[in-house]
Design brief:
- There is one protein chain.
- The protein has about 350 residues and is an alpha/beta fold.
- Strand 6 and strand 7 form a beta hairpin.
Length: about 350
């Protein structure tokens, strides 16, 4: 990217290990078409740390201004070019030279790397605050197809860095600005949705994963898969590894566009529902969300919810706006949110509920 400045980043990760079966699923109970209030217990740290995954490491950070934005884009690749059809590069993509791994987090507001994409691009996380109550925001899970979520993450990072948004003393906020940097680099269109293996990273999680799904009512513009098995992709494996090494209480996964706020879980975890309701109260995003009859499988928010984490998918209003002022209120509400659940994870459920397409 022209005019880009190089800056060192540091790597946090684990040694490669076999990804264990972490299919913690949920109860299908419903009342009058709405999920029943099943209680969840946050598991002790050792329970979640029992799930291991690959965490690839390293990379360098490039910074530049994105088109039409006054915020640093912190871009990872060459300028985006929309293409008509997908062409998934091979795994032999040359990776950027990696810094040595370290278990020490970088200072607040600075990026560190939790892994790499299929194409060797770093997965960058920014930390703000040092409190024991940990929150996580994930953007760009669908790469260039939802590029505005990455731009929003960069805007939130800018506001946190300049002090216009303050993280409470007891809170640590982590922002993963782009889980799918390969798709982001490939296209700002349909062809940017998958990673470099042609996988939808939001269908690659262990909870209710299926190798294929009924495409009726779902995103179906180009061929895309759920991966050859859960966590088959380095991006999802690295994020899972990062999550189980922490004790996150709440997660927002940003998407676009226009369908509303989806609480994670099958049925929705009551804590995820509380978080969705809190965010809906300060926005005009649809809640309950719009429903086009898509059945979801292998979803990140559902997996997070199954771990006892309050989790939501939050969809921006369009594919090219970041709804900044609305999402500054979302961020303030998210930082103030306090989970209250103290029940066990719900028992297995064979399939996800019917939810709207992304």
């Amino acid at each position: 990217m022209q005019g880009a400045d190089r800056a060192q980043v540091r790597t946090v990760g684990t040694s490669p290990a076999t990804v264990l079966d972490s299919c913690v699923a949920r109860s299908p109970a419903r009342v009058a078409g709405r999920p029943s209030p099943v209680r969840h217990r946050r598991q002790p740290r050792g329970y979640r740390n029992g799930l291991t995954a690959l965490a690839m490491g390293g990379g360098v950070l490039l910074s530049a201004c994105g088109p039409g934005s006054v915020y640093p884009l912190l871009a990872l690749a060459a300028p985006v070019e929309t293409v008509a059809v997908p062409s998934w590069p091979s795994k032999a993509h040359p990776a950027t030279e990696q810094p040595a791994p370290t278990a020490t987090p970088t200072p607040t507001g600075q990026p560190f790397v939790i892994g790499s994409s299929v194409g060797g691009r770093p997965l960058q996380v920014f930390r703000f605050g040092a409190g024991p109550s940990e929150r996580l925001i994930v953007a760009g899970i669908h790469g260039g197809y939802e590029w505005n979520t990455v731009l929003l993450a960069d805007a939130l990072i800018a506001h946190l860095r300049d002090g216009s948004i303050q993280v409470p003393a007891g809170v640590s906020l982590f922002i993963l600005r782009s889980l799918n940097p390969d798709g982001e680099a490939r296209s700002r269109g349909y062809a940017g949705r998958a990673n470099d293996n042609g996988v939808d990273l939001n269908r690659n999680w262990p909870t209710t994963w299926q190798p294929d799904w009924n495409r009726a009512g779902c995103w179906n513009y180009l061929p895309i898969t759920a991966g050859i098995h859960p966590l088959s992709e380095p991006e999802t494996a690295a994020l899972l590894s990062f999550i189980v090494e922490h004790d996150f209480q709440a997660v927002i996964s940003y998407h676009s566009a226009a369908l509303g706020i989806f609480p994670g879980g099958d049925p929705p975890n009551p804590e995820s529902t509380r978080l969705a309701e809190a965010l809906a109260a300060v926005t005009d995003y649809p809640y309950p969300p719009l429903n086009y009859g898509c059945e979801y499988t292998g979803q990140f928010a559902d997996w997070s919810s199954a771990q006892g984490i309050a989790a939501v998918d939050l969809e921006l209003s369009t594919h090219d706006s970041i709804d900044l002022w609305v999402n500054l209120e979302v961020l303030r509400t998210f930082l103030a949110f306090e989970p209250t659940s103290d029940g066990p994870p719900t028992p297995p459920s064979p399939r996800n509920p019917i939810r709207a397409p992304e």
